[in-house]
Design a protein that fits this description.
The complex is a heterodimer. By secondary structure, chain A is mostly helical. Chain A is built from ten helices and no strands. Chain B has a six-stranded mixed β-sheet with strand order 6-7-8-3-9-10, sandwiched between helices. A four-stranded antiparallel β-sheet of chain B has the order 2-1-4-5, covered by helices on one side. The chains are: A mainly alpha, B alpha/beta.
Chain lengths: 245, 256
């Protein structure tokens, strides 16, 4: 408890400052913290959040899982095989640098107003950072470990499973954590722009009504999703890569 | 028996075709149960030669054969001990030692038994659950040695295994390796840049010259076995060492 004191203090201080500014400035777009919490309580009480949260999380989980699998496979191939990397590197980096939201209209055109459209957006948001990190992780594995494995007769599959995979985990997890964050962004952006469901759609609706307290309340929920998913990945990371610490 | 005949190895330089000749026309044999040390100045290709015998890199010309069979890759009769230890940082001592056994599909309890025996043999009792980073360099190389011995190879290929260790640790490990070798009498090819080490350990010392790497001379070491550290004071030891130094010195004059 004591070691978390700075964080707790910072959060309490932030809330207090927000409350103070909210009341003293009286701006329409900055409601006091207590009003936001009130809106949040109402949302939770009426079940509105829960229904939309479920829809958002489903998209997030499906989209992120696809991004994770594609990212790991593609990244591994690029990290291990020079010619695959040479062929794909320009595309991966271009798509990574490009703001993923520009694909929204394309996916809208392809998939229409469906879950597929927002899932596709989450995938492009989250995937490339995982690809890049995984490729770098595999490429920078100590070559003497690979050579050692070969000296004991390991084939490519064993080298991958017994050397490359465990050795690259710390860096791969760094990519996964960034990917989770981007997936949450993709989820909200996709919902706001093309698929009018979930938390993004709620935020969009109340934004249009200039109901700042409700928009902030939704932002809080998104923030919590982000923090929780990050904590989950962190937990898994700590468990699997303790040796690297 | 390891037989190397007219072996040449060239490393390619980019695309223009001009390569660097790392090894040229190497000829030698290592008999069963013999301990051969290889010494030479840096750039003489001694590590490259060892890696070729290990089957880790291909060669261009000539012949490398073990018991008459050409080397085309690593094989179960050979095991390598690496200069930088090459231990798995995520695996504890026990798991590192059983690595070679596991990848060959040895049953788990057999792996464990072999590993426990070897842990005793190399003096790592009580460290079974430690990670490599929690061990000293000397202990890490003991793990490397135990890992190689675990697969019970007939031929042990050692690439400057004690080169990264401090003098005291190095001498202790040399003594232990001698004891171990007396017991198991494996065929050993041992690359080193230490003259003491080359003479202390080897039945024969192979002296190499650089650019391109060639065998200058095979030198018999007529010191009695089992050898104790006292052997360093013997006339024969000093004589061979001085002979090596004369040669190595001549190779390096004008280069350093």
């Amino acid at each position: 408890m004591r070691q978390n004191a700075p964080e707790v203090l910072a959060l309490l201080g932030g809330a207090a400052l927000w409350e103070f500014l909210g009341w003293s400035l009286g701006l329409q777009w900055l409601p006091p913290f207590s009003k936001v919490m009130e809106a949040l309580a109402q949302f939770v009480g009426s079940g509105v959040i829960l229904a939309n949260l479920g829809s958002s999380l489903r998209g997030l989980i499906v989209g992120f899982s696809i991004a994770l699998i594609l990212g790991l496979v593609l990244g591994s191939l690029m990290g291990r095989y020079r010619h695959v990397e040479k062929a794909l590197d320009i595309y991966v980096h271009a798509l990574f640098v490009c703001p993923s939201i520009v694909f929204a209209p394309v996916f809208f055109a392809i998939f229409g107003l469906s879950d597929m459209a927002r899932i596709a957006i989450i995938v492009v948001y989250a995937m490339f950072v995982i690809v890049i990190n995984t490729a770098t992780a595999i490429r920078t594995v100590d070559p003497s470990l690979v050579e050692m494995a070969r000296s004991f007769g390991c084939g490519e599959a064993q080298i991958f499973r017994r050397i490359l995979l465990p050795a690259s985990l710390p860096l791969v997890f760094a990519g996964i954590r960034l990917g989770v964050g981007r997936a949450v962004k993709g989820m909200i952006n996709g919902e706001m722009l093309i698929a009018f469901v979930g938390l993004g759609a709620l935020a969009q609706r109340y934004g249009a009504q200039f109901d700042a307290a409700k928009v902030f309340a939704i932002a809080m929920v998104v923030l919590i999703i982000g923090l929780v998913s990050n904590a989950l990945v962190q937990m898994l990371d700590n468990r699997l890569t303790r040796w690297a610490g | 028996m390891i037989r190397v005949r007219a072996l040449s190895k060239e490393f390619g330089m980019r695309d223009n075709g001009a390569g660097v000749l790392a090894l040229s026309d190497i000829d030698f044999e290592v008999n069963d149960n013999e301990f051969v040390t290889i010494i030479g100045p840096s750039g003489c290709g001694k590590t490259t030669l060892l890696r070729i015998i290990a089957g880790l890199i291909p060669y261009d010309q000539g012949e490398v054969a073990i018991d008459g069979r050409a080397v085309t890759g690593p094989g179960p009769e050979r095991a390598v001990v690496f200069q930088n230890f090459a231990l798995l940082p995520w695996a504890d001592v026990l798991a590192n030692i059983t690595f070679g056994l596991e990848v060959r599909g040895t049953p788990l309890d057999e792996c464990q038994n072999t590993a426990r025996h070897l842990i005793k043999l190399v003096g790592l009792e009580g460290f079974e659950k430690r990670l490599p980073k929690e061990l000293s360099g000397g202990m890490q190389q003991r793990v490397g040695l135990a890992r190689a011995l675990a697969v019970n190879p007939r031929i042990l290929l050692m690439d400057e295994p004690f080169g990264a260790l401090d003098e005291q640790t190095r001498r202790l490990l040399q003594e232990q390796l001698l004891l171990l070798w007396e017991e198991q009498r494996k065929t050993v090819v041992f690359v080193t840049h230490s003259m003491d080490e080359a003479v202390m350990l080897g039945d024969r010392v192979m002296l190499m010259t650089p650019r391109p790497g060639r065998v200058k001379e095979m030198i018999d070491v007529p010191l009695q076995r089992p050898r104790s550290p006292q052997v360093e004071k013997s006339g024969a030891f000093v004589e061979i060492k001085e002979y090596l130094w004369e040669n190595l010195r001549a190779m390096q004059v004008g280069e350093s």
